[in-house]
Every structure is written in structure tokens, then in C-alpha cells.
Amino acid sequence: MRFAFLVYAPRSGSTYLARLLSEAPAHVIVLPEYTFTQQLLARDDDSFATMTAADYEALIGRDHRLVADLGPGDALPALARRVAGQERRSVFEALVAALHPTDSSTDAVVVIKYGEAAVASRRIFACMPEARFVHIVRDGRAVANSLMRTERAYYPGESMGRDDIVYSSRLWRNHVRVLSKLSDARPDAVVDVRYEDLLEDTDAQLERVISFLGAAIGDSGSKPFALHATEQSIHPLLQADPVAKRSAAWKDELLEEELLVCQMLVGRDLVERGYLLSEVSGAGRPNRAWTFAVSYLKHWRATTVWFVSRLWAFRSRRQAIVDYARVRARRVLDQLPDRTPQQAITRAAPARSDKPPRLLLVATIEPTLTGFLAQFAAHMRSLDWQVDGLSDAATQSSQPDAFDRLIDAPWKRRNWNPYHFWLGIRAVQRVIAEGEYDVVHVHTPTAAFLTRFAIRNDSSATVLYTCHGFHFHSGASWRHNAVFRSLEKLAGRWTDLLIVINREDFDAAVKHRIVSEDKVRLIPGIGIDLSTFARSKTTDADVAVRREELGLAAGDSLLLSVGELNPEKRHSDTVKAVAALSCPNVHLAIAGTGPLRDELQAEADRLGIADRVHFLGWRKDVRELLVAAEALVHASSREGLPRGVTEAMALETLVVGAAARGTADLLSEGGGLLYDVGDVPQLVEHLSFVIENPTEVRNLGMRGRAAVEPLDVSGILQEYEEVYESLVG
Fold first, then answer.
1. Alpha-carbon torsion angle 31, 36, 37, 40, nearest 10
2. Are 378 and 406 in contact (CB under 8 A)?
3. Helix residue spans in 117-185 (DSSP H)
4. What is the rounded distance in angstroms from the CA atom of residue 245 to the CA atom of residue 496?
5. What is the rounded CA–CA span in Å between residue 47 and residue 29?
């Protein structure tokens, strides 16, 4: 079995080429873009020897597309058992055998569709020295034009290229330059296929690629390219042959100034790949310079991104300057009279042979400590660890027995007072110095940043950060993302291990190099006790009590929303959708408190549904409310891995959720209905389905229960136990 990789820039026609390869009369097997295969390429070689069957089963289980392709039965655990402890290549071979058990795949060429495979070429060649790279390259002007005019899948109205010719052009240029470096280093391992040539003479180009791969001609081994249903729904034209005239559409669609800037940015790369530059009127040197400058001012977003990226590119030089400045400053301070030396907060690592390991759990507010982290504390204490908790008002915890000691911190949630920050930093330094902790596990952004900053020079404790959702995300403004991404990258320098809870954050951590790749791990949330969150635990009497409390009649339907009443939760979308329904007997209950309550009440009154929208405030009986409701409506635009959605799925209650990160991870393979964030008409359609199809809604709810079974708290606790033990081992 030999391996090859199909690499590409966005909008380059890679799906078309992959389909042609899979349908060709040659012994070629094409693998779709599984996140599992991408993780295999991102891992260090040493980590494979320590991977157990349980580790692989959990890892594969998070790739819903791969799980679906493996099919029902014991295919997943069988694959996990087969690859446990194997090296990277053997894992790939076992994966292919599991997906294509009837093929004689020993002499097959396996083509893995992965655009960024060239970045991992060193790891690929280390385990697959025969590896080949098929690079489909398209005219950069056509790519930029297509990016600017193609909507993002989950954000209608926003273009993939941000409506920015500078960004779109640079995206293509950066990709082809990475491939150029790989081609220069291994010219025998890379073949370029021009998209335009593929359209003009498909058979000749396909034969050229198959010959390069060295695939045997024959019927065996071929299989139609597995284009997933999700991808088909997003891009319905992917399985259709491309229209030749679209490859030259940029000539008519790009504005003259856009074409000029595009060619100025990528002209050299175009010429190197055999493309002819177009004449642009008024393209003399003064006009070119003026247009280029005006374009960069016009596209100041891309300019800022470029400037920041340059700063990070020269971080080693910048660090050398900072280190030199520190040395000079220290010499000056040493010459000042009567200078009181500062007390160092670093200490020697504690001897672990004569006392139990010590763990400090840090959060911003007490409810996080009590509601989410107490189970981790109790579990680790049962293993003879000493576990302390630190948060605002920690000593007021309703579960003090879960911790050995609770410590109050002086910070507050959403309090940007620098004085409180300074108090928090000093408090953390004292607690760490006195506690002699082996592991400091931080949660929630404020506490996590201040704690890591406070002990950034203390090498005695290992710092673990669980990110419950980066503050920068695809739905936020670029200014917002630039600030919070920079803060995360800064704090990443003081982090020994980063744990993320959803796929988008994992990809973002690797892409933006928040920490090095070997320091990122995906663990889906904090777990849910499926024995507690079972529909059988709630009686009909419990449901009747809640419906009576809301004044519901026998034929009334109940929708539930849970979450703080703030702009990010987008409760107003749900209120508008309920008002737009043609069913006057649909009620909406909103459990939560927050600053937008009065505004939401006024909106419900304005829409004429104030008598059918119930504001419940903070509730302890969310489980019973979820069982009483026909569906949970979760309209939030920013999530990590939403607890409310997980609980609803465990209780077999259908979830109608906005396709934000985390929520999309949970609902993409069943158990709920996804809609684009902020798309109220689409939400209305889903809610109408819920009201009109109770039987199908019930079946979907039961599928949701099956989908969250891998998130049972026992498995999550086991994963964290392994993490903790490895950090002190």
C-alpha cells in the first residue's frame, strides 16, 4: 500500500479531481478530509507508542464522518484495538483496510485529500518515504475572484474571501509558495495539475496523474468518492462537472483595481506557473504604486493582519531585544542605592515520593468551581491527590467537601479594574508559593490569564489550561479576534498543556500556534452523568407540575431556552421565531438571568406574544423543564461545548441549535436540527417541523441520547486522570 496526498488552495477544484481519481479504472482509493487523518499527521511520532485502544476509540468517535463511514457494529472498536500501540503508517493502513475491507489494497495507492498536508511533509516522509503529492493549482486570479464571490457555508452574506482582494490573493500565494518549497526539496514527489488543463483535456491529465502515482490499471480498488451529505448540502454543485467558462470568469468579474492589486501581489507566482499577466489600463509605475497604496488603505483589515503576522514572524529577534533590555535594566537597578531586592516566587520542585500530588483548580467565579469542577476534585481526591480550589467567593461553595481547601480570589467576572487584576496576581503568587502544587489547572479566561501571568516564571508547577471556548471565533469581528487571539498567544507561552473542547478551537489552536502542536489536546467538555440525566428519572408528575406552573393547557406546546440573557445567547432570535409561527398555542420558557431581560420582555410585548413567553429566572430544575419541553432552542453565537445542549440530548429532548462551534460538533450527526446563526426564517422552519411532527421529533431526541454517550462523565474523568498522572509522572 502506497500513500499520496491531494493538496490544494481553497476553490481550486480539488473535489473534482478527487472524484475523477476515485472513478478512474485504476487501483486508487480516495479518502475524504477526515479530521482523524489530520490528527494522525499532527501528532508526534513518540505519542503513537503510548496510544491505547481506548484512546483511539475516543479519538475516532469524535470524527462523526469517519464513524458514519465505518458503519454500525463493532467496526470502530475493532479498528481501535488493531491500531493501539502501532506506528503512524500502520494506523493509516489499518484505517484503509477498515473502510475498504473487500479491496485487495496491498498494492493500492491511497490518496488522502488534505489541503495542508505539505506542512506536515517531514512527518509524512518519515513514515511514508514513497509518499507523493498531487497539487492541483488554479489561476490565482480565478481563485481570488471565486473566494470573494462564494458565501461562507454557515454565514450567508459573508464571502469566503472576506470581500477583500488582498486577503484572497495572499491566501493563494502563501499556499503555492509552501508547495514550491516542497517541490524544490523533493521534485520527484510532487506533480502539479493545472485546473484549466484538467478542464481542457481531462483524460490526458488524469492519465498523467495516475502514471505519476504508479497505480495499477484495473477495476479493483476504485470506489466513488465519498462526498459527505453535509458537504453536499452546503455545496450542491460539487458533484457536477465544473463549467469551463467559470475558470475565466475573473476577467469580467474582477474590477480593474482589484485585478491590478491581485497581479501585483501574485504576479511572479502566476508567471512561474505558466499564466500570462493581463494588461491593465493606466498601469504605469506611478499609477501602480498609487493604486497599490490606496488598495491597502481600503483593505486596512488585511494590512493590519499582515503587520501583526510580521511581528510574530520576527518573534525570536524581538525576544532577543527584550532579553537585552532586561539585562540592561537589571544592571541599572543594581546601581541604585538602598534598593530592596524582590523576593523570588520560584521554588524547588517538591519531592513526590513522600507525599501525595497536589492539584489547584482555578476559576473566575464560584459557580464554575461548584457546578463543573467539583466532580474533578472529588475524583482526584479518591485517588489520593490533594485538591484545592481558587475562585471568587470560593469559600461560599455549596460543595465544600469536594475539595481539601477552598481559597477566595479578589477578582470578579467582567471586572476590568487593573487594581483588582494586580490583587489577583499577587494572591495567586502567594497561594502557589504556599501550596507547593504539582499541577495548576486553570479555567475561564480571566482567571486563566491572570494565573498564568502570575506564575509565568515559576517552573515548579505544571500549568494546564482548559479552554471552554476561545473568545476569538469565526462569528466575531476582526478587531475582537485580533485582541483575544493575541492574548491567547501570549498566555500560551506560559502554558504546558492546552485542552480544548471542540473541533473549531482545536483547529484554531494549531493554525494560530497558540501553543506548539504537541501541547494541544481535544477532550470534549467536562462530561455529563448519563445515569442522572436520563429521561426515566423524571416522572409524568414532574412534567405536569412544570406545565401547570406555566399555565399550559393540554394542547399547548412548550419550547425552552436556557442561558444567560446576554447578546451572545441571541434569545431575541428565538422570541422573533416564536412570534412568526402560525401556531398560537406555542409557548416559550427562558431559564436564565441577565441584563437583557427587560429588553426581551419589551420585544415579546411588541410582537404580541408576551402571554406566551415566560421568563423563569435562574432555575435548579432545568432537567425537569427539558423533559417537559418539545425542544430546546439554543440560538447562541459563541459556545465552547454547551452544557445545556448536552443535557437536552442526554434527556432525549430534541435540540434546535445555531451552527456555532461546539453546538455544531454536538448536532452535526443527529439528535438535533442546525440552522445558521441569526437566520430567523430558517429557525421558524425548524420550529414548525417540531410542532407538526411529534413522532419524528421523538425519534431524533433518542438519536441525541446515543450521540452523547461518548461524553459520559466517567470517560471524561478517566481522560483527565491520565492527563494529570502524565504531568506528574
1. -160
2. no
3. 121-127, 140-149, 165-185
4. 52
5. 27
Q: Are 202 and 40 in contact (CB under 8 A)?
A: no
448 neighbors 471 (Cβ within 8 angstroms): no
List of E strands, 652-715? 654-658, 672-675
Q: What cell numbers appear for 133 in the block? A: 503529492
pTM exceeding 0.70? no
Segment 534-548 mean pLDDT? 91
* CB contact set of 8 (below 8 Å; sequence gap of 6+): 14, 115, 135, 136, 137, 175
CATH topology of domain 358-527+720-728: Rossmann fold (3.40.50)
Instruction: Compute the distance between CA of residue 254 and CA of residue 217 in angstroms, rounded to an integer.
Output: 43
DSSP letter string, 520-540: EEE--SS-B-TTTS-GGGS-H
527: alpha, beta or left? (left if phi > 0; alpha if psi -120 to 50): left
Let me know how long the chain is.
Answer: 729
Euclidean distance between the first and the last CA atom of the chain, given in angstroms as a whole number: 38
Reduced to 3 states, what is the DSSP secondary structure of residue 30?
Answer: strand
Calculate the alpha carbon distances from 21 to 387, 441, 500, 574 in Å.
56, 48, 36, 46
- The CA dihedral of 239, 245, 247, 251, to the nearest 10 degrees, is -150
| Cα–Cα distance measured from residue 480 to residue 25, given in angstroms and rounded to the nearest whole number | 51
CA distance 45 to 23: 34
C-alpha cell at 659: 451552527
**How far apart are the C-alpha atoms of 281 and 276, rounded to whole Å?**
16
Confidence of residue 307 (pLDDT cuts 50, 70, 90): low
The partner residues of 192 in beta bridges, in order of sequence, read 135
Over its C-alpha atoms, the chain yields an Rg (Å, rounded) of 28
DSSP 461: S
Q: Cell 477526515 sits at which residue?
A: 34
The DSSP 8-state label assigned to residue 585 in this structure reads: T
Secondary structure class of 551 (helix, strand, coil): coil
Q: Which helix (H) or strand (E) segment is 63 a member of? A: none
CATH of segment(s) 535-711 = 3.40.50.2000
Position 220: which residue type? S
- Distance, CA of 534 to CA of 532 (rounded, Å): 6
> Closest by alpha carbon to 18, among 171, 195, 141, 189?
195
Measure Cα distances from 452 to 69, 350, 411 in Å.
42, 20, 14
Query: Mapping DSSP to helix (H, G, I), strand (E, B) and coil, where does residue 82 land?
Result: helix
Query: In angstroms, rounded to a whole number, what is the distance separating the alpha carbons of residues 78 and 60?
Result: 12
Asked whether 123 and 5 are in contact (CB, 8 A), the reply is no
Give percent helix, percent strand, percent coil of the chain, each to the nearest 5: 55, 15, 30
- The domain limits of the chain are 2-141+188-240, 358-527+720-728, 535-711
Mean pLDDT, rounded, of the chain: 83
Q: Is the distance from CB of 683 to CB of 661 less than 8 angstroms?
A: no
> H-type helices in 629-677, by residue range?
643-650, 663-667
Is residue 701 scored above 50 in pLDDT?
yes
Fold match between domain 358-527+720-728 and domain 535-711: yes
| Closest-CA residue to 668 (of 240, 193, 243, 62) | 62
Residue 557: per-residue pLDDT: 93
Where do we find the cell 520527484? 188
- In whole angstroms, what is the distance from residue 25 CA to residue 4 CA? 17
Closest of 181, 166, 205 to residue 21, by C-alpha: 205
Q: What is the pLDDT of residues 476-527, one digit of tens each?
A: 777 878 888 888 888 888 999 999 988 888 988 988 889 888 899 999 888 8
Question: Contact at 8 Å (CB) between 95 and 70?
Answer: no
CATH of domain 2-141+188-240: 3.40.50.300
Spatial separation of the C-alpha atoms in residues 369 and 399, rounded to whole Å: 9
CA-nearest of 63, 214, 233, 227 to 134 is 214
Query: Which DSSP category does 299 fall into?
Result: T
